[in-house]
Amino acid sequence: MSIPIWVGHYIGLPFKEHGRDRMGVDCWGLVRLVMAEQFSIVLPSYSTYYDSTTREDQLAPLIAEERRHWIPIEHGEEVFGDVVVLRMRGQPIHVGLVIEKGRMLHAEVGIGSVLDSYASARWALRVTGFYRYGERPTDSLADGLS
Asked: DSSP string covering 111-129, please?
Protein backbone atom coordinates (compact mmCIF):
# COMPACT_ATOMS: atom_id res chain seq x y z
CA MET A 1 0.00 0.00 0.00
CA SER A 2 1.31 3.46 -0.79
CA ILE A 3 0.90 6.38 1.56
CA PRO A 4 -2.03 8.62 0.57
CA ILE A 5 -0.98 11.97 -0.88
CA TRP A 6 -3.10 13.84 1.65
CA VAL A 7 -0.90 12.61 4.53
CA GLY A 8 1.70 15.15 3.39
CA HIS A 9 -0.73 17.96 4.24
CA TYR A 10 -0.40 17.03 7.92
CA ILE A 11 3.39 16.69 8.08
CA GLY A 12 5.11 19.76 9.48
CA LEU A 13 2.19 21.23 11.42
CA PRO A 14 3.64 23.05 14.43
CA PHE A 15 3.23 21.61 17.91
CA LYS A 16 0.87 23.63 20.08
CA GLU A 17 -0.47 22.69 23.49
CA HIS A 18 -4.23 22.12 23.17
CA GLY A 19 -3.92 22.74 19.41
CA ARG A 20 -6.82 21.39 17.37
CA ASP A 21 -6.30 22.91 13.90
CA ARG A 22 -3.69 23.56 11.22
CA MET A 23 -2.27 26.49 13.18
CA GLY A 24 -0.88 23.93 15.65
CA VAL A 25 -1.66 20.55 17.17
CA ASP A 26 -0.70 18.35 20.06
CA CYS A 27 -0.83 14.57 19.57
CA TRP A 28 -4.58 14.23 20.25
CA GLY A 29 -5.29 17.38 18.24
CA LEU A 30 -3.54 15.86 15.22
CA VAL A 31 -5.44 12.57 15.45
CA ARG A 32 -8.67 14.49 15.94
CA LEU A 33 -7.96 16.77 12.94
CA VAL A 34 -7.13 13.90 10.57
CA MET A 35 -10.09 11.81 11.73
CA ALA A 36 -12.47 14.71 11.12
CA GLU A 37 -11.08 15.80 7.77
CA GLN A 38 -10.29 12.42 6.22
CA PHE A 39 -12.68 9.95 7.86
CA SER A 40 -15.60 12.22 8.90
CA ILE A 41 -15.21 11.00 12.49
CA VAL A 42 -15.70 13.73 15.09
CA LEU A 43 -13.79 13.05 18.28
CA PRO A 44 -14.07 14.96 21.55
CA SER A 45 -11.61 17.84 21.93
CA TYR A 46 -10.54 17.37 25.57
CA SER A 47 -8.50 20.58 25.21
CA THR A 48 -9.84 22.00 28.47
CA TYR A 49 -9.35 18.75 30.42
CA TYR A 50 -5.57 18.98 30.89
CA ASP A 51 -3.08 21.73 31.67
CA SER A 52 -0.28 20.48 29.42
CA THR A 53 0.91 17.41 27.56
CA THR A 54 3.40 16.80 30.39
CA ARG A 55 0.58 16.17 32.88
CA GLU A 56 0.35 12.39 32.74
CA ASP A 57 -1.91 12.47 35.82
CA GLN A 58 -4.49 14.33 33.70
CA LEU A 59 -3.85 12.69 30.31
CA ALA A 60 -3.76 9.00 31.28
CA PRO A 61 -7.35 8.97 32.61
CA LEU A 62 -8.60 10.82 29.50
CA ILE A 63 -7.00 8.30 27.15
CA ALA A 64 -8.22 5.39 29.30
CA GLU A 65 -11.78 6.74 29.11
CA GLU A 66 -11.60 7.39 25.36
CA ARG A 67 -10.19 3.89 24.69
CA ARG A 68 -13.38 2.39 26.14
CA HIS A 69 -15.12 3.58 22.95
CA TRP A 70 -12.50 2.12 20.58
CA ILE A 71 -12.19 -1.39 19.19
CA PRO A 72 -8.89 -2.94 20.34
CA ILE A 73 -6.81 -4.34 17.46
CA GLU A 74 -4.19 -7.05 17.85
CA HIS A 75 -0.61 -5.96 17.26
CA GLY A 76 0.18 -6.92 13.68
CA GLU A 77 -3.46 -6.45 12.59
CA GLU A 78 -3.36 -2.64 12.66
CA VAL A 79 -4.21 -0.89 9.42
CA PHE A 80 -4.16 2.57 7.92
CA GLY A 81 -6.32 4.88 10.04
CA ASP A 82 -6.03 2.99 13.33
CA VAL A 83 -4.79 4.84 16.42
CA VAL A 84 -1.66 3.72 18.24
CA VAL A 85 -1.36 4.52 21.97
CA LEU A 86 2.15 4.86 23.38
CA ARG A 87 3.69 5.24 26.83
CA MET A 88 5.67 8.35 27.69
CA ARG A 89 7.01 8.89 31.19
CA GLY A 90 5.63 5.44 32.04
CA GLN A 91 2.01 6.28 31.19
CA PRO A 92 -0.12 5.69 28.06
CA ILE A 93 -0.43 9.40 27.19
CA HIS A 94 0.71 9.69 23.56
CA VAL A 95 -1.25 8.86 20.41
CA GLY A 96 -0.51 8.62 16.72
CA LEU A 97 -2.31 7.55 13.57
CA VAL A 98 -1.19 4.40 11.75
CA ILE A 99 -0.27 5.34 8.18
CA GLU A 100 1.10 1.94 7.21
CA LYS A 101 2.23 -1.04 9.24
CA GLY A 102 5.13 0.18 11.36
CA ARG A 103 4.65 3.90 10.63
CA MET A 104 2.58 6.58 12.32
CA LEU A 105 1.75 10.23 11.97
CA HIS A 106 2.10 11.97 15.33
CA ALA A 107 2.98 15.31 16.93
CA GLU A 108 5.60 16.02 19.56
CA VAL A 109 6.88 19.02 21.48
CA GLY A 110 9.79 20.63 19.65
CA ILE A 111 9.21 18.57 16.51
CA GLY A 112 5.66 19.19 15.32
CA SER A 113 3.84 16.60 13.25
CA VAL A 114 5.96 13.93 11.56
CA LEU A 115 5.92 10.46 10.08
CA ASP A 116 7.77 8.14 12.43
CA SER A 117 8.28 4.41 12.96
CA TYR A 118 6.44 2.94 15.94
CA ALA A 119 8.55 -0.19 15.34
CA SER A 120 11.78 1.78 15.99
CA ALA A 121 13.97 1.30 19.05
CA ARG A 122 12.54 4.52 20.48
CA TRP A 123 8.86 3.53 20.24
CA ALA A 124 8.50 -0.26 19.95
CA LEU A 125 8.50 -0.99 23.69
CA ARG A 126 6.21 1.98 24.35
CA VAL A 127 3.29 0.75 22.21
CA THR A 128 0.42 -0.12 24.55
CA GLY A 129 -2.17 -0.90 21.89
CA PHE A 130 -3.90 -0.20 18.61
CA TYR A 131 -7.50 0.96 18.35
CA ARG A 132 -10.10 1.46 15.65
CA TYR A 133 -13.09 3.78 15.72
CA GLY A 134 -16.30 1.91 14.98
CA GLU A 135 -16.62 -0.77 12.35
CA ARG A 136 -14.84 1.21 9.66
CA PRO A 137 -14.41 -1.23 6.77
CA THR A 138 -10.77 -1.25 5.65
CA ASP A 139 -11.78 -1.66 1.99
CA SER A 140 -13.27 1.84 1.96
CA LEU A 141 -9.94 3.28 3.09
CA ALA A 142 -8.47 2.57 -0.31
CA ASP A 143 -10.70 5.31 -1.74
CA GLY A 144 -8.51 7.92 -0.02
CA LEU A 145 -5.24 6.60 -1.39
CA SER A 146 -5.00 8.60 -4.59
From this structure: TEEEEEETTSTTTGGGEEE
Please write down the long-range contacts of 116-125, taking CB distance under 8 Å and 24 or more positions apart. Answer: 118/84, 118/86, 123/86
Q: Residue 98: name the closest of 60, 65, 136, 66 by CA.
A: 136
Give the length of the chain: 146
Query: pTM of the full predicted structure?
Result: 0.88
Domains, the chain, ranges and CATH? 5-134 (3.90.1720.10)
Query: For residue range 75-84, what is the model confidence (pLDDT) as tens digits?
Result: 999 999 999 9
Task: Choose among 141, 26, 13, 27: nearest CA to 85.
Answer: 27
